[in-house]
TrEMBL record:
Protein name: ABC transporter substrate-binding protein
UniProt keyword annotations, A-Z: Signal
CDD domains, A to Z: PBP2_TmCBP_oligosaccharides_like (cd08509)
tRNA processing found in the keyword field: no
Solute-binding protein family domain ranges (all copies): 94-456
Region (Disordered): 23-63
Taxonomy, superkingdom: Bacteria
Cross-referenced SUPFAM superfamilies: Periplasmic binding protein-like II
Organism taxonomic ancestry: Bacteria, Bacillati, Actinomycetota, Actinomycetes, Micrococcales
Signal peptide span: 1-22
Length: 561
């Protein structure tokens, strides 16, 4: 498998230094001319994009991860970010997009954003700094829309410049800020309930506009007034397949030309079907798959149960059996992927690796007051310790991993069952805390702070029934809250190291979630009709079709020779 590892500490520091001085060139050149894509030619061939997420509902709200727009990824062909940031290669310079330039103050509590001129919304109205300010104010006023968990303070506009003040330093969140997409103030200021509105007639600045929406396919056509000029691909067609297997077939046969799904033995099953055109790119970094544990209720409100399960999960099997070796084994007890994260691991854990320990797990449980009736682990209520593991039907790798975890739980007397709801039902349950345990990914950042923050940052806490952006397990811990804040407030590497070491201590001792395997970004795509995709030789973007780099990738595509 061809992968690239994220740079470690030196490159990470360089990336942050780069962002800190990211008063970009301010060039007003458009992405198609500056990116050298296609010179205005169009091949006429539609591009079919697939995801294995099952039945969708007509919802194009870009703020909601339950919407079809986010599930399939077309939100990012319509709505664009302030800058295009390659989060798989954070040392690369961000590309100014809707922001012409930006400047941080010395403690990262303020950013000044200059809006690009010459941009229009797809309904013909001019894009201005007011749109940027309003998009950020929406997030400030509605916690459910603040998916990045940014601590907004004051947001002000003067001419073409937006000044944003934060309650704390945003050293580690610079990428998050630059990746924020912008919505039109003249549309969204009239929406009574932006947290639930389905936004079925989206208006964006992006290269494509929504033409038709059906449960079978979503069609987007080129935006004729796009500020970036004419692109090679005239039309995008999005399809949601029932699961990994059906999308694999579509990608292998060329019925879909871009997507992301787990394909076991992808070289033989996918690439070999059309070796001249079927391509895959899996850039690795500091993201992982985690087993989210609902800490608000039994059995995972007891740290002893969390510790015991952590001791019996076999990460080697998770990597080799569930993920066919495509997702690397997670070895460090800190859950920090190696070698990408080697330099971040605290001295206390440098040589400590995951190892299955059934006897040790049973001792943790009996020391905590649990008992055994034969081979059954009995809770303090006299009943067998039981829980449900769930992930969407069709996500074969995740389901296989859940079954491995189910077997691990059985080895210490727990009764775990596996359920496979559809993707919408699962997403809603995880978001609102109506589950026991579920496999879910984390983002990859410049440092492991991002991964840990996604897993258990109390700043994301929402009570059960309310939508959480991260910390789906609803973990609460004052020490963790202080350590996360100390990291973002730190003004030097020593302060950040102290805070990150503390977070590693909390992860190891409290087990707020279980790291399962290292997770690269990834996508499969065909060069039959279009060239210019991200690759090992040109890793300019995260290749997944559901992230903010979508518009950048679409401007880079050109008709295949």
């Amino acid at each position: 498998m061809r992968t690239r590892k994220l740079a470690t500490l030196v490159a990470g520091v360089a990336a942050v230094a780069m962002l800190a001085t990211a008063c970009s060139s301010g060039s007003s050149s458009n992405p198609t001319t500056s990116g050298g894509t296609n010179g205005g030619k169009a091949s006429g061939q539609a591009l079919t994009i697939g995801m294995p997420n099952g039945t969708q509902t007509n919802n194009s709200n870009p703020f909601l991860n339950t919407s079809a727009a986010r599930s399939l990824g077309y939100a990012f062909a319509i709505y664009e970010p302030l800058a295009e940031v390659n989060d798989t290669r954070p040392a690369q310079d961000p590309i100014p997009w809707l922001a012409k330039s930006w400047t941080w103050n010395t403690d990262y509590t303020q950013i000044k954003i200059v809006a690009r001129d010459g941009v229009k919304w797809s309904d013909g109205q001019a894009f201005t700094a007011d749109d940027i300010a309003y998009s950020l104010q929406l997030r400030k006023d509605h916690a459910a829309l603040n998916n990045e968990g940014l601590p907004y303070k004051n947001i002000a506009v003067a001419g073409d410049t937006v000044t944003v003040d934060f309650d704390s330093g945003q050293y580690v969140n610079q990428i998050k800020v630059l990746q924020l997409f912008v919505v039109p103030k003249h549309i969204w200021s009239t929406i009574a309930d932006p947290e639930h509105d389905t936004n079925q007639k989206p208006v964006g600045t992006g290269p494509y506009t929504l033409t038709t929406w059906t449960p079978q396919a979503v069609t987007l056509d080129q935006n004729p007034t796009y500020w970036g000029g004419k692109l090679a691909v005239p039309q995008l067609r999005y399809t949601s397949y029932s699961g990994n297997d059906t999308l694999t077939t579509a990608l292998s046969t060329g019925d879909a030309q871009w997507g992301w799904t787990f394909i076991s033995d992808y070289q033989n099953v996918y690439v070999a079907k059309d070796p001249a055109h079927n391509k895959a790119f899996f850039p690795a970094g500091l993201g992982i798959d985690q087993l989210v544990l609902n800490t608000t209720k039994a059995p995972f409100n007891d740290v002893a149960v969390r510790k015991a399960l952590n001791l019996v999960v076999d990460r080697k099997k998770a990597s080799e059996i569930a993920e066919a070796g495509i997702f690397p084994e997670l070895k460090s007890v800190t859950a920090i992927p190696t070698p990408a994260g080697d330099s971040f691991i605290a001295d206390a854990y440098k040589d400590k690796s995951y190892a299955v320990d059934v006897a040790g797990a049973k001792k943790v449980l009996t020391d905590a007051g649990y008992t055994y009736s034969g081979d059954k682990l009995m809770g303090k209520d006299g009943k067998q310790v039981s829980f449900v593991l769930q992930d969407p039907s069709g996500w074969n790798d995740y389901i296989t991993s859940l079954k491995l975890i189910q077997d691990a739980a059985k080895s210490i007397g727990m009764n775990a069952s596996v359920e496979t709801p559809n993707a919408d039902t699962w997403t809603d349950a995880v978001n609102k805390g109506n589950f026991d345990a579920a496999l879910h990914w984390t983002n990859a950042g410049v440092t492991p702070w991002e991964m840990y923050s996604n897993m258990f940052d109390p700043a994301y806490y929402q009570p059960v029934g309310k939508v959480a952006a991260w910390n789906y397990g609803r973990y609460q811990n004052d020490d963790a809250k202080a350590a996360f804040k100390a990291y973002t407030d730190a003004t030097d590497d020593a302060g950040r190291k102290t805070a990150l070491d503390k977070l590693q201590d909390i992860y190891v001792s409290e087990v707020p979630a279980l790291g399962i395997d290292a997770r690269p970004a990834g996508a499969e795509f065909s060069s039959k009709y279009y060239d210019g995709w991200p690759s090992d030789d040109n890793p300019y973007a995260n290749p997944q079709p559901t992230v903010a780099n979508v518009a950048l990738i679409l401007t880079k595509l050109k008709p295949a020779s």
